[in-house]
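Q: I'm building a small set of examples for a reading group on sequence design. Run inverse folding on the following structure and report the sequence directly after it, with nothing in between.
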């Protein structure tokens, strides 16, 4: 009856990881083969001594932080089942979500679905936006300017999408990312040029080009804290976001669009961010923004 393997990439997430695993074990355990944890050289012992929870748990300790994409690819090598669930360690799967998602995606009429996500909720149980359009120069410029909050249909994050209803989407959030294992292997997994962010966007686009779709399944719930690891170093988080955006553009945009995006990212975006934090009277965020964009510019020059 085993249908899927779960891969979790961990880096200093404390007790969130243990809580995540317990939430998996509260699901229909007969559906699950291995729970594979790839620890990216954490120094908080968060991945230590977790095997007591279940014999299904396998832990791979890396000697350095290889990033999310490579961590997922490493974990996938220990998988043997039809589906792979990439799950963030700061998630908890709620109710009978895993069983319901598996029942849905394995129906004959849903064989065109290559990737499936589910509803994300915050710690108050409120549904949060978790599906996106594929990046284009236009929606990235709306994001850079901050106007995506005003013009919801123009932004990359689909704030205009009814998250209480299931449906096909361009891309679901990587925090709960269920994919057919044969597709993942056929595409050689995540592109390891992405250290963090945009890797699942790139993979979703490549899956679409093979003729498969991504689906948002609203009849399930997954709590997602978000940013547990990245919040510990906001400068590095911002750098990873900016770098991944350019890496994605270099793969999928025209040369003209790449140049426009770089110009906007270097000359306009930091100005907009600094002005916003001046208005918010947040000197710490001003310092973080300046440091992030200075490093990003150095990376671009190299």
């Amino acid at each position: 009856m085993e249908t899927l393997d779960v891969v979790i990439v961990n880096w200093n997430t404390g007790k969130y990881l243990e809580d995540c695993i317990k939430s998996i074990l509260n699901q229909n355990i007969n559906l699950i083969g291995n729970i594979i944890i790839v620890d990216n050289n954490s120094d908080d012992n968060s991945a230590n001594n977790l095997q007591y929870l279940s014999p299904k748990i396998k832990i791979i300790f890396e000697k350095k932080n290889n990033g999310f994409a490579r961590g997922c690819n490493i974990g996938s090598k220990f998988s043997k089942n039809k589906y792979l669930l990439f799950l963030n360690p700061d998630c908890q799967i709620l109710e009978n979500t895993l069983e319901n998602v598996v029942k849905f995606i394995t129906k004959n009429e849903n064989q065109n679905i290559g990737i499936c996500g589910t509803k994300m909720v915050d710690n108050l149980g409120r549904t949060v936006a978790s599906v996106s359009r594929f990046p284009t120069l236009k929606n990235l410029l709306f994001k850079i300017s901050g106007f995506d909050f005003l013009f919801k249909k123009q932004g990359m994050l689909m704030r205009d999408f009814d998250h209480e209803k299931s449906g096909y989407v361009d891309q679901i959030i990587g925090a709960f990312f269920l994919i057919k294992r044969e597709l993942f292997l056929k595409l050689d997994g995540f592109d390891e040029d992405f250290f963090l962010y945009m890797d699942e966007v790139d993979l979703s686009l490549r899956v679409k080009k093979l003729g498969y779709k991504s689906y948002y399944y609203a009849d399930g719930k997954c709590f997602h804290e978000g940013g547990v690891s990245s919040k510990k170093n906001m400068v590095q988080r911002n750098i990873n976001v900016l770098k991944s955006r350019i890496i994605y553009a270099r793969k999928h945009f025209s040369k003209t669009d790449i140049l426009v995006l770089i110009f906007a990212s270097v000359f306009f975006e930091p100005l907009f961010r600094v002005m916003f934090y001046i208005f918010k009277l947040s000197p710490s965020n001003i310092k973080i923004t300046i440091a992030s964009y200075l490093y990003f510019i150095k990376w671009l020059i190299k």
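The longest strand covers residues 213-224.
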